[in-house]
Structures are given as C-alpha cells and as structure tokens.
Amino acid sequence: MFSVRIRGIYSTALAKIFLDEDFVFSDLSPKLINRLRIDKENIVAHSDLTIKNDDEYKDVIVFMGFPEAVDRATEIFRKYFTSSFIEEPKPLYAVYRGVVEKKISQDECLVSTPLGVSGVLRDMLCSPGQELNLTLVGYRNDLETPILRRGISVVGKYMILDDTGRVQFSEHIRDSDVIEELKGFTEIITREKFGVKWRSSSKNADTISILKEYNTLKDIYRRILDQISKSENNRFVYIGEKIGFIQFSTKDLIKLDEIRSYVYPTAPFHHMMKTYTNLRNIVDLLDLLSEKLDKKDFIRSYYKYIVEKIEENITVFMIHRKLFFGEIIFIGPAKVLYMDTDLLDKEGSLRFVLYRHVKSEGLYDGLNIPKRPGDMILTFLETSHRYIFHAYYGQDRDLKGVYINANTEIYPLYDIDHRSGKEMLYLIYNDLCIDGVIGNDFRTIIDEEEFNKHCEKKRIKEEICGKVHSVLNSIILENEKIFSLFKDLLKDRSLEKLDKDLVKNIFYELYKYEKR
C-alpha cells in the first residue's frame, strides 16, 4: 500500500481517485480529511508519492516519489484520463559516472548520460574529458534535457543524503521547534561530512525513525560508491525516485469536475475556471449554487449567458495551449461574425466564424505567404470538434490560403479582468502539434514529425494519434471543395453580410470526415 501527498487546485478530485485506488495519505489538509471522510488510520507520517500542479502551468501535474509508487500513479492516470497527455516516468535522483563533453558557458557543461541525451551540469570547475560522479536531479522544461549535480545523493522517506556538506530544509517545514530539533540530527550528519535536505515528512517523524533511516542511507551511499567505482560510465547504479508529468486536456478537466462532485458540490467548468480565469474566488460560490440546480440546467444557463455576451460583442480570444511547458498563446482579439446555436441543446456545441484584422507584416505560418497590414483572417470552429480552420484573405478579398489546426475539443469560458472590468470570452483547446495547409497550388500536412514523436513517446494516446492523422489527411487530400468554398465566401460580399447557407455548407465540408 502506497502513501500519497496531494496539493493544488485538483487536490479534492485527485484525492478521491487515489482513495478509491487504496492509497493512504500523508500531510492531508483538514479540509480534505472532512470532505473525503478519511479515517485516521489512513493518514501516515511519510509519503511515497507527491502530486501537485505546476505553479505557472496550472494544467500540468507533476508527480514524483519512489519508483514503484510513481509507476502505479501512471497506471491510475492512464485509467482515468484517457485524452490527457502523459509523460512516461523518468529517473530522478539517479546516480552514475559520466564524462563531460564540452563547456557551454562559464559555469555550465554538457555531460553524457545513460538516457542517450546530454545533461546540463552547472559547475564552474567542469571541463571537457572529466569523469565525475553525478546525480540526475531534474529536467528542463523540454522534458528531455537532464539537470545534473556533481556527487551522490540517496533518497529516504525523511531526508535526502548527499556528499555536499550543505544543509537544506523543505519549504513546508515552518515550525521553529521542529527546525531546532532537526538541527540536532543535522550536526551528527555534517560531522560525518554528509549534506542533508530535510523532507517535509521529517516534521512528523520520531527520533528512532530518523536515526534508523540515516544509518540505512549511509549504507546505501557506501554501496553506491563501491559500485560506481567498478561500473562502466553512463550506467545508473542507483535510482532513488522517478518523476512523471500529466497535462490535463480540456475534456478531462470536465471529467475532474464530475469526480470532485462525488464528494463536494462542484459547478460545471470548476477546474477550467480555476486553471484559466480570474474567477477563482467566484468558483466557490458557484459550487454552492450548483448544489441547488440540476447540472443540465446549470450548463444550459451558462451557455445562454455566453450567447448573450457574444451578442453584446464581447472580446474573444482563442487560448492555444501547447503541450506541457510550451507556450500558452492568446490568439486575438477577435470579433464574432457568425454564431450558430442549433447544435447547442443536442450536442452542447456552438459554431463560430471569427474575424481578425491583420496589423503587421510577416509570413503566414506553414503557408510561407506574405502577411500584410489590412489582411483579414476568418476562423471557423465548432466547439465539440478537434479542428480549427483559419482562412487568410488579402485586402482585395482574394483567398491566400487555409491553415488547419488539430487540437482537443474546444470549450468556451467566460472571464473578466477585475482591475479593468473588461469582459472576455476564451475558446480554450490543447494543440496536438500537427497541422495542415492548403494553398492555390499545394496541400500538405505540417509538423508531422513533432506529432509522431509525441505519439511514439505515448504522450498522446495511440487511438487519438491514429484518428487525428487519418481525419486531417482526409481533410487535406480528399476534399477539393474547401478551398473553392472559402474563395467564394467573400466574393462580392461584405463581412457583415456573409451568406449563411454558404457558411453552413462550409461547416458541413469542414467536419464531415470527423463525424464519420
């Protein structure tokens, strides 16, 4: 049985999941104990696994801990969140002997690693050709490049022991009495030329447990030192922990709402609002109100409000969310030229045609066609589908090209800037890193290599990979009508007088492959 420590804006929903999967809990807040009615015997002093959302990229969950616990968590995440993006667990606090490859700055070197990629060592004394004992302690935001530290680190439940001689305390240890008590153990450790980082669980540990773990970690350290002197370079002789990442898709943020609602009143779009908007303080009120309303009525009222705001010409932005620690791109502001609510009651779907006015010069991405001030961009999207279509027009209303973005399902989200009072509508989706372009004399899929890489690494579910590629391929290569329909759209017509029958016909052609 594994123990887990959970923090962040998804803590109630995730705690419910891990409780159902027979985990016990460490350092659980009183609020969560009450919500989940957790018995005291399910609360332990240490954690095998820590789960928390990233501070900046709130839709990214970082989970780390002892290898078997992290592997089990990965299985659970794959079971519950079938459309989210999961990075397979990677070694952490992994010890090996490596060779410095080259100096890349005054205090950084590239070093070989057992993972087949170069790691970054920040060390002013590093130089090419050096053989060093190293510990892998993290990864850069690309999730590919290891971050290294000189020396050996050994991981326990209450402390991380190393050979630096330095002393650190977890930021979660704030009680001065606890710190003072741990300083007594610290003196023993540093006297023997070790360094230590006290983990948050140490504040709940008794003296015997701490001393026992210290002696165990010393033995492991000596065994590693012996093994590393005999082993070949670039081979891990010890892996203390693993670390994994999951980025919740827009669809699975909705699933989190459902899971949370089993233990506490939860408004639809709760987690999406917590993640992407300034309405975090209002969400708690909406949760309580949702308890008095039927869920379908709540969603119906929410969409009705969205429609009313659009009719009032609210500013619209598309939130183009790259994978994991990639950019969060705000595309806009845009104006709604056309809105179709016919599918709202049946499918919960809205259709939009958005307009943007080009103000700068450059090139249209993927098309490599000049972008000029005064150009017009019309965007067609249907919120329950994966594809967004951007049609680029010159000042003369001639079609320059069409860009097709593959993504997750799109969700409309209301927000307000509390300082300016400005209202906004966000259309939120996760980019799937594969797109298509259609021009006068070319049709092609772009960024296929990046997409295939994510699929090979199982960051994107295999079923989604196959379907997205197949549908996009059909749109690009089989549909001869798309380009001519977009060409006809603005012929002899103003933006304010779009032919609604033609617009509906375009929507049919755009999404007919996905609906098969």
Describe the protein's topology.
Blueprint: E1 3-6, H1 11-20, E2 24-26, H2 30-36, E3 43-44, E4 49-53, E5 60-65, H3 67-80, E6 85-105, E7 108-111, E8 119-122, E9 131-139, E10 146-150, E11 153-155, E12 159-162, E13 167-169, H4 176-191, E14 195-198, H5 207-230, E15 238-247, H6 250-261, H7 270-276, H8 280-290, H9 295-311, E16 315-321, E17 328-340, H10 344-347, E18 351-357, E19 362-364, E20 369-371, E21 376-382, E22 387-393, E23 399-407, E24 411-416, E25 423-438, E26 443-446, H11 448-456, H12 462-478, H13 481-489, H14 500-511
Helix pairs in contact: 1-6, 7-8, 13-14
Written description of the protein model:
The chain is an alpha+beta fold and 516 residues long. It contains 14 helices and 26 strands. It has helices at 11-20, 30-36, 67-80, 176-191, 207-230, 250-261, 270-276, 280-290, 295-311, 344-347, 448-456, 462-478, 481-489, 500-511, and strands at residues 3-6, 24-26, 43-44, 49-53, 60-65, 85-105, 108-111, 119-122, 131-139, 146-150, 153-155, 159-162, 167-169, 195-198, 238-247, 315-321, 328-340, 351-357, 362-364, 369-371, 376-382, 387-393, 399-407, 411-416, 423-438, 443-446. The strands form four sheets. A seven-stranded mixed barrel has the order 16-17-18-21-22-23-25, surrounded by five helices. The chain has a five-stranded mixed beta barrel with strand order 6-7-8-10-9. A four-stranded mixed β-sheet has the order 11-12-14-13, covered by helices on one side. The protein is globular and about 85 Å long. The mean pLDDT is 91.
Report a brief summary of the structure.
This protein has 14 helices and 26 strands.
